[in-house]
Write a structure and sequence with these properties.
The protein has 213 residues and is an alpha+beta fold. The protein has 7 helices and 11 strands. Strands 1, 2, 3, 4, 5, 6, 7, 8 and 9 form a 9-stranded mixed beta sheet that branches. A two-stranded antiparallel ribbon has the order 10-11. The chain is globular. The two termini are 31 Å apart. The relative contact order is 0.15.
Length: 213
């Protein structure tokens, strides 16, 4: 896990490296009846797509749409929720506070927990579309962003891989390698186009996508 460069504003914060993440079953139990769309992101989305566990997980990411954030906040009444203000200041997320564009991470733990338990990743929306916050030209239909893999809602695989493509972490390379042989042609095409649009100077994954074409 890469170092988390966060400056805490609370008097006695939980250290940013201290995680006891919810498991898959606990996460599903927490959100299965939620009145808003949600999906596993990060490594768990990858593993549900691949259909097997192949690496350890330090945390759990749950994607929600920005316009449903207050519904999610109400659903988690009783939890301690913290918004990550740019460039990375964690501070309490106030009840009824609508987090604007640019604030896209929310950390959470139960009051009795002394470690972080999951993280909300906030997806940007524009009418019936979702879009990539760093390049709004990269987008897709909102109702197609969440797919069911291994029985669980997950961020669509080619989109999740695109999100991971910005990093050079060993686990991101491992995730891409595990997914590549299983990607449908349309998923490869979308990922290839998104990488080309976002990285006009080139990207290492493009050669692998072309070789597997």
């Amino acid at each position: 896990m890469q170092p988390r460069a966060f400056v805490f504003r609370m008097a006695a914060p939980i250290p940013d490296h201290l995680w006891q993440p919810l498991g898959v079953a606990e996460t599903v139990a927490l959100f299965s009846k939620a009145p808003f769309a949600w999906a596993f992101g990060g490594g768990y989305a990858i593993e549900h797509f691949v259909g097997r566990n192949f690496r350890a997980h330090e945390d759990v990411d749950v994607m929600i749409f920005r316009d449903q954030q207050l519904v999610a906040q109400q659903w988690l009444a009783g939890w301690n929720l913290y918004a990550a203000d740019p460039p990375g200041n964690l501070r309490p997320w106030q009840s009824g506070e609508f987090l604007p564009f640019g604030v896209h991470d929310i950390w959470a733990h139960r009051p009795q927990s002394h470690a972080w338990q999951f993280q909300f990743l906030v997806a940007e929306v524009d009418g019936g579309d979702w879009f990539f916050r760093r390049n709004p030209l990269i987008r897709g239909r909102r109702n197609e962003l969440i797919q069911v893999y291994s029985g669980q809602p997950c961020v669509r695989i080619e989109v999740q891989l695109f999100f991971k493509s910005r990093g050079t972490r060993a686990k991101d390379l491992q995730d891409f390698a595990a997914c590549l042989p299983l990607l449908a042609p349309e998923a490869k095409n979308w990922l290839r186009e998104a990488l080309t649009l976002n990285s006009p100077e080139g990207h290492a994954w493009l050669a692998q996508l072309d070789a597997d074409h």
